[in-house]
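thought: user wants a sequence for this fold. calling inverse folding tool.
action: design(structure=
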C-alpha cells in the first residue's frame, strides 16, 4: 500500500507535447489530486521540453518540476511506457499506471533491441528494465479490465493491483442527459488514426455512405460533431479504455466496434455483442448492414447504449473516490 505523508512529493511522469489518451489521463490525475487538496503534486516531462504541457490540457491545473529526489516519502507515477524508470529511483515509492498494454510491448521491444546492440558493441550494460519483479515499493494501477488481466498474467497478484481509470474531457460532461439529434444526419464518424486498414476497406465497400474523420479538432469541436452524429465506428487496437469510444457514447452516439484489445471485454466496452465484430473481409457486408440499420433506426438502437453511457458519466466520481482511498493519510 502507498504511504502518503506531509513530506511526500507526488511526481507524475509524462511525455511532452503529446495530445493522446494517456497523457491526458496523467494531466487529469495531477488536476484531480490538486482539487482534492493533496499537496506537492508535480508533472515531470521526459524528455524535458519548453512548453511541454499541450494547450488542450490547460483545463487541468498542474505544476511542473524539473529535478527528482529519490526519497522513500516520494511517490512516482510512471506510465507503462516509462518502466525503465523503476530501477532508476530505488528508494522512492513507484506506481506503474497501465494505460496502454500495446504501447508497453512496442516500446519495451524497441528498448531491448537497442540495449542489446550497444551492449554487444561497446560495454556490458547492467539490466535497467523492469520485468515485473516483486519490489515492495512498486505498485500497479490498471486503467482497464484488459490491462488488469495482462499484469496478472505476468505474476502480479490481484491484491497488489488497484483499478484506476481516468475520465473523459470535461467538454463532454455538460448537458449529457438529453441530446437532440437530427435523424436525417446519416454521416458516420471515426478516428482515422485507429484501425485504418479495416475502416478503409469498409469505406471502400460503402460508397453510398458518408464518413467523416475526427482529425485536427480540439475537444470542444469533437464534442460538437459527436453531439450531431448518430454513429461512431471503431476497429482500432484499443490497448486501454479508449477515450473516443467513451466520449462518443456520452454524446448519445451508437457504436459499432471491433473486438481488439479492451473492446473484447464487456467490462471495458459495455455494449451488446451484436455491435462488436471480429473483422474480416467476408464480414464487411454484415458490418455495413448493421451500420445502415443503426442509421435508419437510431431511436431503437440508442437504448442499447444506456448502461455504457451511465458508466462513462460516473467515471470522474469513481476516479475521485479511488484517489481518496489510495492517498488517505
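)
observation: tool returned 329 residues.
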Amino acid at each position: 500500500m502507498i504511504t502518503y505523508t506531509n513530506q511526500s512529493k507526488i511526481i507524475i511522469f509524462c511525455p511532452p507535447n503529446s495530445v493522446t489518451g494517456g497523457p491526458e489521463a496523467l494531466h487529469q490525475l495531477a488536476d484531480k489530486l490538486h482539487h482534492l487538496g493533496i499537496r506537492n503534486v508535480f508533472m515531470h516531462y521526459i524528455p524535458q521540453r519548453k512548453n511541454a504541457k499541450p494547450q488542450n490540457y490547460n483545463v487541468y491545473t498542474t505544476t511542473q518540476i524539473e529535478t527528482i529526489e529519490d526519497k522513500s516519502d516520494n511517490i512516482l507515477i510512471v506510465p507503462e511506457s516509462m518502466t525503465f524508470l523503476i530501477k532508476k529511483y530505488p528508494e522512492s515509492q513507484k506506481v506503474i499506471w497501465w494505460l496502454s498494454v500495446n504501447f508497453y510491448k512496442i516500446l519495451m521491444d524497441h528498448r531491448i533491441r537497442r540495449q542489446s546492440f550497444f551492449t554487444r558493441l561497446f560495454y556490458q550494460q547492467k539490466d535497467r528494465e523492469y520485468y515485473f519483479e516483486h519490489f515492495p515499493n512498486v505498485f500497479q494501477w490498471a486503467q482497464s479490465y484488459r490491462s488488469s488481466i495482462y499484469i496478472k498474467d505476468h505474476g502480479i497478484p490481484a491484491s497488489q493491483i488497484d483499478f484506476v481509470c481516468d475520465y473523459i474531457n470535461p467538454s463532454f460532461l455538460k448537458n449529457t442527459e438529453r441530446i437532440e439529434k437530427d435523424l436525417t444526419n446519416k454521416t458516420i464518424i471515426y478516428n482515422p488514426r485507429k484501425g485504418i486498414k479495416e475502416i478503409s476497406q469498409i469505406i471502400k465497400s460503402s460508397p453510398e455512405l458518408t464518413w467523416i474523420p475526427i482529425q485536427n479538432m480540439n475537444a470542444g469541436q469533437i464534442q460538437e460533431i459527436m453531439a450531431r452524429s448518430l454513429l461512431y465506428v471503431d476497429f482500432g487496437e484499443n490497448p486501454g479504455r479508449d477515450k473516443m469510444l467513451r466520449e462518443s457514447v456520452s454524446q448519445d452516439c451508437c457504436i459499432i466496434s471491433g473486438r481488439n484489445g479492451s473492446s473484447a471485454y464487456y467490462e471495458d466496452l459495455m455494449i451488446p455483442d451484436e455491435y462488436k465484430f471480429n473483422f474480416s473481409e467476408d464480414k464487411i457486408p454484415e458490418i455495413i448492414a448493421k451500420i445502415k440499420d443503426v442509421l435508419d433506426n437510431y431511436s431503437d438502437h440508442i437504448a442499447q447504449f444506456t448502461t455504457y453511457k451511465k458508466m462513462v458519466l460516473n467515471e470522474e466520481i469513481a476516479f475521485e473516490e479511488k484517489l481518496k482511498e489510495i492517498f488517505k493519510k
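thought: summarizing for user.
answer: Here is the designed sequence. The radius of gyration is 21 Å.
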